[in-house]
Structure formats: structure tokens, C-alpha cells
């Protein structure tokens, strides 16, 4: 909900990089997550980052965390048509008993 | 293969009827969660259970009920008191308190 915010839409050309941004409010967040949802399916964990890290790379995915600004981003290199989906960021905080708070999701459309 | 199974994938009911959504996991996870997803609103937590025979209300528990009689199973009942039950329902589980959530493929409930 309101604790985690994302822009709702992103359109990117095939082969370009996509950058999805997320802001959160709780400075005591422990982990921050990125999930992917394809139409009619559940959420698939893409990657996550511990709050004491500022970057994590996993193949085509790069996560950047700016803890001072409470800003998280997910970069997808060489975006493919199969990357078209909704991407959710989520935070886990002890204040909320480690329940995940999700953003509203960013719909990524990859165009040829 | 370990995972979370939600059934059925699609469910149709008439207004005024209670309906139960099934969620089973064979991941040996202690904690299980039910979320509701509506377009453009992200995921909202309905109920969660961190241990067998115990569960807590989430942010939107009104009109829903759950039970947790077995570790593997966490069924959700949508009662006739739920004012707007048509939605996509997602079940999730996790092994430890601050670990990633694993999701099922969801049940789309339509009430007319």
C-alpha cells in the first residue's frame, strides 16, 4: 500500500534496458524484494537485497538500493518480450512483524 | 517438486454463498499467508498463520475466515459478509520469519 510506491507503467523497446523504481518509507526495513507476475499467475521471486547492501547483480538483473533516500531500483539488461509482466517491489520490516508490504506493481510492456 | 498448490484456478459463485479456497504446500514452511489482488492495488493481506492452530488478521480480514489445522494446509473461506468478493486470491508461504515469500498460482473468484 502506501508504504511502498512504484510508477504504474513502463514501456521499453526490445534489447534496451528497463529500470523500475520503487520508494519505501521504513528505514528499519531488513530485506527488499522484487517479484514478477505474468498474466493469470502467481508472483515469482526475482531477486532480493539485504538492507546493508547497496547493489546486487544476478545475470541480467541489477538491484540498486539507496538507503538514505529509501529508493530501490531494478534494472533488466537486454529486455526481451518474455520480460513483459507486472513487477512488484516489497519490503520486510520488524515493525510490521516481517510481513511484506507490496507496492501496487509496475506493468512493463516490451515493444518490438 | 516442492511448491504451493491453489485450487481451483477459477471459481464462480452466486452472491450470498460461502466459498472455500484451498491452499496446500509441501515446502515444510511454518508460515502461510492469504492475499487479495485487485487491479492497480497491489496485494493486500487478508490473514496469516505463523504456526499450526494459530492465525492473525491482516489488513482486510472482514468477511473472511481461515483455519490452520495442519502445517500443509491453510484454507480461506470467503463468506457472504464480504461486500466485494470478486478478486484474484493468492496464497503464500515462507520458512523463516524474514525469508522470501513463495506464492501459489492463485484462484480467480467471480461472484455474481
Quick tags:
heterodimer; A: 112 residues; mainly beta; five-stranded antiparallel beta sheet; 11 strands; B: 112 residues; seven-stranded mixed beta sheet; four-stranded antiparallel beta sheet; globular
What does this structure look like?
The complex is a heterodimer of chains A (112) and B (112). With 112 residues, chain A is mainly beta. Helix content of chain A is 0%, strand content 56%. Chain A has no helices and 11 strands. In chain A, the strands form 2 sheets. In chain A, strands 2, 4, 5, 9, 10 and 11 form a 6-stranded mixed sheet that branches. In chain A, strands 1-3-8-7-6 form a 5-stranded antiparallel sheet, with no helix packed on it. The radius of gyration of chain A is 13 Å and the shape is globular. The model of chain A has no long low-confidence stretch (mean pLDDT 94). Chain B is mainly beta and 112 residues long. Chain B has strands at 4-7, 10-13, 19-25, 31-37, 43-51, 54-57, 64-66, 76-78, 87-94, 102-103, 107-111. In chain B, strands 2, 4, 5, 6, 9, 10 and 11 form a 7-stranded mixed sheet that branches. Chain B is globular. Chain B starts with a strand and ends with a strand. The mean pLDDT of chain B is 94.
Brief overview, please?
The complex is a heterodimer of chains A (about 110) and B (about 110). Chain A has about 110 residues and is an all-beta fold. Chain A has strands at about 5, 10-15, 20-25, 30-35, 45-50, 55-60, 60-65, 70-75, 85-90, 100, 105-110.
Silhouette of chain B: globular
Question: How can the largest sheet of chain A be summarized?
Answer: 6 strands, mixed
Radius of gyration of chain A (Å):
13 Å
Mean pLDDT metric of chain B:
94
Percent strand of chain B equals over 45%
Amino acid at each position: 500500500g502506501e508504504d511502498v510506491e512504484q510508477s504504474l507503467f513502463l514501456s521499453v523497446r526490445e534489447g534496451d534496458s528497463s529500470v523500475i523504481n520503487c520508494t519505501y518509507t521504513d528505514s528499519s526495513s531488513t530485506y527488499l524484494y522484487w517479484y514478477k507476475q505474468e498474466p493469470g499467475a502467481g508472483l515469482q521471486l526475482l531477486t532480493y537485497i539485504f538492507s546493508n547492501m547497496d547493489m546486487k547483480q544476478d545475470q541480467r538483473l541489477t538491484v540498486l538500493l539507496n538507503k538514505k533516500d529509501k529508493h530501490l531500483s531494478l534494472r533488466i539488461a537486454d529486455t526481451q518480450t518474455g520480460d513483459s509482466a507486472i513487477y512488484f517491489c516489497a519490503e520486510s520490516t520488524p515493525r510490521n512483524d516481517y510481513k511484506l508490504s507490496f507496492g501496487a506493481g509496475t506493468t512493463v510492456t516490451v515493444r518490438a | 517438486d516442492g511448491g504451493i498448490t491453489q485450487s481451483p484456478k477459477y471459481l464462480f459463485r452466486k452472491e450470498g454463498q460461502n466459498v472455500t479456497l484451498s491452499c496446500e504446500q509441501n515446502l515444510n514452511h511454518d508460515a502461510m499467508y492469504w492475499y487479495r489482488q485487485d487491479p492497480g492495488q497491489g496485494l493486500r493481506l487478508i490473514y496469516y498463520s505463523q504456526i499450526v492452530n494459530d492465525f492473525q488478521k491482516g489488513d482486510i480480514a472482514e468477511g473472511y475466515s481461515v483455519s490452520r489445522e495442519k502445517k500443509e494446509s491453510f484454507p480461506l473461506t470467503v463468506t457472504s459478509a464480504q461486500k466485494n468478493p470478486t478478486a484474484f486470491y493468492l496464497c503464500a508461504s515462507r520458512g523463516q520469519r524474514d525469508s522470501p515469500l513463495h506464492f501459489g498460482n492463485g484462484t480467480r473468484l467471480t461472484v455474481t
